[in-house]
Amino acid sequence: MATGTLGSIAKDYPARNSVLSAVINLANLAPTQTFKVGTVPAGAAITRILTCVQTAFNYGTNNNISIGNAPSGAQIVAAAAVGGVGANAQTVIAAASISASDIDVWITGAFTGTVGNTGLGFVWVEFASPTGQ
Fold first, then answer.
1. CB-based contacts of 21: which residues, under 8 Å, 6+ apart?
2. Of 56-65, 66-75, 82-91, 95-104, where does mean pLDDT reach its minimum?
3. 1, exposed or middle or buried, with CB in 10 Å at 0-12, 13-18, 19+?
4. pLDDT digits (tens, 9 = 90+) for 15-36
5. Structural domains in the chain plus CATH codes
6. What is the pTM of this model?
7. Fewer beta carbons within 10 angstroms: which end of the chain, N or C?
8. What are φ and ψ of residue 93, in 5° steps?
9. How far, in Å, CA of 43 to CA of 28, rounded?
């Protein structure tokens, strides 16, 4: 029941956390393909990027992704290894974490060496918006 006091209804807390999520695999990334995950709204801050690999990527030399604000970009995360099974927090480049305008989020594969044939994972881009958008 709303009482009119702060916290009595959801709208009293305008800040919201949101997540963009994407499946990553050899079909949509290897060896250097790129795709758009979504858009972080103006004024929001990228707070964390997580990857979780369910089936190991098995290219011979590098099994990396980069995350940028344009196709083939690396302005948000540069050369993050995604080869082995497990969860990883990726390092967000500080200058890319907040913007006065919308931030498009693109993932690009950087797979090199002997051609692989397996790999499945997920990427989550968490962001918070002080305006609740």
1. 37, 122, 123, 124, 125
2. 95-104
3. exposed
4. 667 999 999 999 999 899 999 9
5. 17-129 (2.60.120)
6. 0.83
7. N
8. -70, 125
9. 29
